[in-house]
Write a structure and sequence with these properties.
Layout (H helix, E strand, L loop, with lengths): L5 H4 L6 E5 L2 E4 H15 L4 E5 L4 H12 L3 E5 L5 H11 L4 E3 L14 E3 L18 E7 L7 E6 H15 L6 E4 L6 H14 L2 E4 L5 H8 L5 E4 L1 H10 L4 H8 L3 E4 L6 H11 L4 E6 L3 E5 L13 E2 L4 E5 L15 E6 L6 E2 L3 H7 L6 E9 L5 E6 L4 E4 L2 E4 H9 L4 E11 L3 E10 L8 H11 L8 E4 L20
Parallel strand pairs: 1-10, 3-4, 3-5, 5-6, 9-10, 9-11, 11-12, 12-13, 24-25
Antiparallel strand pairs: 1-2, 7-8, 8-18, 13-14, 14-15, 16-17, 17-19, 19-20, 21-22, 23-24
Helix pairs in contact: 2-3, 5-6, 7-9, 8-10
InterPro entries: AMP-bd_C (IPR025110), AMP-bd_C_sf (IPR045851), AMP-binding_CS (IPR020845), AMP-dep_synth/lig_dom (IPR000873), ANL_N_sf (IPR042099)
Pfam families: AMP-binding, AMP-binding_C
Protein name: Acyl-CoA synthetase
């Protein structure tokens, strides 16, 4: 029971564990409220959680985990069809929700239990083993319905402890974040992480630079955010000295869920003297790599493998790269205690995801520097462009384009070309729609920074790029992507 959250069973005192806006719970109150949830769900196999960015969601998930039951976080913004699939696939026996939360009709047949954060009950006698499921998190599948990644308690504990090692994360840290609570980033790292350390989390509910400045200037030590949030911070910094001062005083600024453009890295560092560090993970693996707190915060990289994680890059035929030169692109494969157990009810998909020697095929393409630093260049399915005999990663071209003053947003894809096999296509949201940069100007800009064969052969202008809840660009939604 105390395996994941020792601070709940020790003398918790009156230290604040969770704060959402004006509402907060001490460790003692969290133990009591989560205990009530745990006793309510004890003996179930899986329980759904309506994962709004509220105190009740955190209490619900902690209570479910204390009972040794698996939590299935539901995205409140999911459509009826997707929710229907998740419910049919995971078969939860009830749904936990905040009082007053309006649930869609597709959930009507499921028993509902409202979470009362004032309730009091002893901690349940959960007898879960480390291989037992903690969470079933549904991945946003690019093809077909989402798959439920079964994440064992062992993966949650080992990932959070590895991050504690990499980030020197302790119970003295206070984390500020405004991330959704149905993803690994916001829920596992951003809520369960502080609670495992015995620290505190302050959730903004809705992300805003004012909230970040307020919390970091009043005791918060760490910020977790996604690139779209850091972009908003970078845009606000020139006119907001209070924000710059607050960020300068933070112990750690961490970005994840997608690559942080180098341009935003540099703008934040110039204004605050602090460098954002990046880490790399996914639903199925939790966290794989990170820039360490005591290491070099090298812009554009996701650092080195975390303790316990084996990482290799492989060629298309599965042959592992033997030397890392910072240039050769390979697919990332990982093995370690951070991995998920299976895709729920999908034995074929589970088997296909792993190699014969137990490595998970991430589908992410990267290069690795001689000193072990990993730089991700994109997804195998959408970001690896084979042009003129070269393997080109879309990510580095996107970074180069974002350094052009006339470019606000950029995405890069490949499309068939009779001569080159594939040609590089740049999708641009111009800084000034009335006078966008020309295609030749952008091609020359990329060629000077990278190499001539990486220059875009076509430029398409858009008003905005399609993005998901975590700010990732959805390239399959581009008009001809």
């Amino acid at each position: 029971m105390s395996l994941l959250f020792p601070a709940l069973t020790e003398d918790p005192g009156e230290r604040v564990a969770l704060r959402f806006g004006e509402r907060s719970l001490t460790y003692a109150r969290l133990a009591a409220a989560a205990g009530a949830v745990g006793r309510r769900v004890a003996g179930r196999e899986r329980v759904a959680v309506w994962a709004t960015p509220e105190l009740e969601t955190a209490v619900a998930v902690v209570g479910v985990l204390l009972a040794g039951v698996a939590a299935v976080p539901l995205n409140p913004r999911s459509g009826e069809k997707e929710l229907g699939h998740i419910l049919a696939d995971s078969a939860p026996s009830l749904v936990l929700a905040a009082p007053g939360a309006e649930l869609p009709p597709v959930l009507a047949a499921l028993e509902r239990v409202d979470v009362d954060v004032r309730a009091t009950a002893p901690l349940p006698d959960g007898h879960a083993g480390e291989e037992d499921p903690a969470l079933v998190v549904y991945t946003s599948g690019t093809t077909g319905p989402p798959k439920g990644a079964v994440i064992p308690r062992r993966a949650v504990a080992t990932t959070l402890d590895a991050l504690a090692d990499a980030w020197q994360w302790t119970g003295d840290d206070v984390l500020v974040q405004g991330l959704p609570l149905f993803h690994v980033h916001g829920l596992v790292l951003g809520v369960l992480g502080p609670l495992r350390r015995g620290g505190a989390v302050r959730h903004l509910g809705r992300f805003g630079t004012e909230g970040v400045a307020r919390e970091l200037s009043t005791g918060a030590t760490m910020l977790f955010a996604v690139p779209t949030m850091y972009h908003r911070i970078a845009e606000a910094l020139p006119g907001d000295p209070a924000l710059a001062k607050a960020l300068a005083g933070a112990r750690l600024l961490v970005s994840g869920s997608a690559a942080l453009p180098v341009h935003d890295h540099e703008r934040i560092a110039a204004a605050t003297g602090r460098r954002v560090i990046e880490r790399y993970g996914m639903t199925e693996t939790l966290m794989n790599t990170s820039v360490r707190a005591d290491g070099e915060a090298r812009a554009g990289t996701v650092g080195v493998p975390l303790p316990g994680v084996e990482l290799r890059l492989v060629e298309e035929d599965g042959t592992a790269l033997t030397a890392y030169d910072g240039e050769t692109v390979g697919e990332i494969q990982v093995r370690g205690p951070n991995l998920f157990t299976e895709y729920l009810n999908r034995p074929d998909a589970t088997a296909a995801a792993f190699t014969a020697d137990g490595f998970f095929r991430t589908g992410d393409m990267a290069v690795r520097d001689p000193d072990g630093y990993v730089r991700i260049v994109g997804r195998k399915a959408t970001d690896l462009i084979k042009s003129g005999g070269y393997k080109i990663g879309a990510g580095e071209i996107e970074n180069a384009l974002l350094e052009h003053p006339g470019v606000r947003e950029a995405a890069v894809t490949g499309e068939p070309d009779a001569d080159l096999g594939e040609r590089v296509v740049a999708w641009i949201v111009p800084a000034d729609p009335q006078s966008p940069p020309g295609a030749e100007e952008l091609a020359d800009h990329v060629a000077r920074r990278l190499a001539p064969h990486k220059r875009p052969r076509a430029v398409r202008l858009l008003d905005a790029l399609p993005r998901n809840d975590m700010g990732k660009i959805m390239k399959r939604a581009l008009p001809h992507g």
